[in-house]
Amino acid sequence: GQRAGTGTSLATVRARRTAFLTQLEIHGCITLAAKAVGLSRAVVYQWRKKSPAFAKQLDETMQLASENVIIEARRRGIEGWDEDVYQGGQLVGTIHKYSDTILCRLLSAADPRYRTSRTEVSNAPGEVLKVEIDPTDVARRIAFVFSQAMHEQEENSEEEEAALQAVSAASAVNTNAAA
Question: Closest by alpha carbon to 69, among 154, 142, 153, 141?
Fold first, then answer.
């Protein structure tokens, strides 16, 4: 059937929503997922507004994407990764690296004792303090922190590569001077 006034079949809309949600789980970003399937963010937010079922799917998919980011952050902070080492443009080996930055941020997120800023709240004796936490907001914040840590890691890798190249160049100069 056609959707009234749109000229788009329901099957087509469902297929586009499914494709979008698949990309959202991969990218974890509405803008990137929409772009990947040829949609605008506005269309996605219209779907969300008009369809409670789609809104629920969107929230669930964002949660999955956030969990994927956390899994990757844990891998980088705890398991680490192998990185090639070059000297003079030649591969000379590998080094196993860990991201202390990501690990510290994961620890900070997991345990309030390790946060740099603390907020204390007091209430009158006998009053119950209620705090509501939006899991989607927490997931977005974790994804943001992870992206910052990834950027820092990339900058550190570039600095290390430049330092290795400088050491190689200095070594070549010393070798040539000795000859």
Answer: 142
Give the rounded distance of the alpha carbon of 174 from its chain centre: 44
Q: Which of 67, 95, 110, 80 is nearest to 160 (CA)?
A: 95
- Could you tell me which of 100, 105, 27 has the C-alpha nearest to residue 69? 27
Distance CA 46, CA 90 (A): 53
Per DSSP, helices labelled H in 28-98 are 30-36, 41-50, 52-74
4: confidence class by pLDDT, cuts 50, 70, 90:
very low
CA distance 149 to 141: 12
Whether the predicted model's global pTM rises above the 0.70 cut: no
What amino acid occupies position 147? S
Residue 115 tokens read as 């946060």
Q: For the segment 20-74, what is each residue's pLDDT rounded down to a tens digit?
A: 999 999 888 999 999 999 999 999 999 999 999 999 999 999 999 888 888 888 8
The letter for the amino acid at 34 is A
Residue 136: per-residue pLDDT: 67
Compute the chain's Rg from CA coordinates: 24
Question: Which residue matches tokens 């040829």?
Answer: 38
- Provide the sign of the torsion angle of the four alpha carbons 29, 26, 106, 111, taken in this order: positive
